[in-house]
Write a structure and sequence with these properties.
Layout: E1 8-14, H1 20-37, E2 42-48, E3 54-55, E4 61-62, E5 66-67, E6 88-92, H2 103-114, E7 118-122, H3 126-131, E8 139-140, H4 144-153, E9 158-159, E10 164-167, E11 170-173, H5 177-190, H6 193-202, H7 218-223, H8 228-238, H9 247-253, H10 258-269, H11 273-291, H12 296-302, H13 308-319, H14 323-332
Parallel strand pairs: 1-2, 1-6, 2-5, 6-7, 7-11, 8-9
Antiparallel strand pairs: 3-4, 10-11
Helix pairs in contact: 1-5, 1-6, 4-11, 5-6, 11-14
Amino acid sequence: MHRSENNITLGFLLLPAFSLMGLTAGIDVLRHANRASGRALFSWQVLSADGAPVAATNGLVITPQGAVGGAVGGAVGGASGSAPAFDFVFVCGGAHPERYRNGTVLTWLRRLARHGTALGGITTGSFVLAQAGLLDGYACSTHFENAQGLADSFPRVEVRNALYVIDRQRYTCAGATAALDLFLQIVAQTADPELAIKAAEQLQVDRIRAGGDEQALLHRTAVSVKAPSLANAMAVMENHMESPLPIPEIAARVGLTRRQLQRLFQQHTGRSPGSYYLKTRLERARIMVTQSASRFVDISIETGFGSHAHFSKCYRAQFGVTPRDDRKAAAES
């Protein structure tokens, strides 16, 4: 997308149980950019699949300005095939994106793509773009809890553990504060980098994070200042799930002895390194169990368990339920 002096229009499609913070973060960046420039550089409209109000995950209900394919602010690629009014359309996702099925929405998104509209996903909006086949051959981001499910369900999509990813005409982010960074980059790209800085100042953002920055996991972030070596060890574990490393090797990689690593884990997590590693692998496995259709034997392999029986035993010990029953309960919730 090249810089333009013209008004840039954006559409925000709200999915059921969408993340409100991701939506408002993006819109507030645009609002502050307009205010700083003294002109209406950006305009936006909020849509739902049928034009009806949509409840966010926190229970707040947003009334949209129209429905997909409807005549909102001009043609938006309705049944007539007219050119869309939007330069960008973002799908605002939320809980259980893997269950979302709406043929009208998918058809509308494909039509927008054919007309050259830049498409994006906030939080788990990437799932819907992937369902429409619009992320095949693209790199993307989504919330870390849903990343494995997205990768398993759509093998032609490159899922990155990044705050946001801009790959040609696809703009995706992990949601929440990552949406601030993504939309600040959009302002810089389409209007003026200095304007993005001014908007960031108004939002009290101390720096515009790069898209390549990894998503911050709370347990790592919480200890990174007081015990950076421990945070590094956690990162090593998270990056070696399928073939778990011996604890002494992890300690060596972060410049610690095994005893030092043991002491740090006990102090900050209340667990031994081995116990923490096992818990981390099982938590990854649970995401795959509840958010994908992957076979349990494949999940056990991808999370470093030697056999399905051992995996199932550890899973039940950790979560109090078998993988099969956990998947069934997730499908019914």
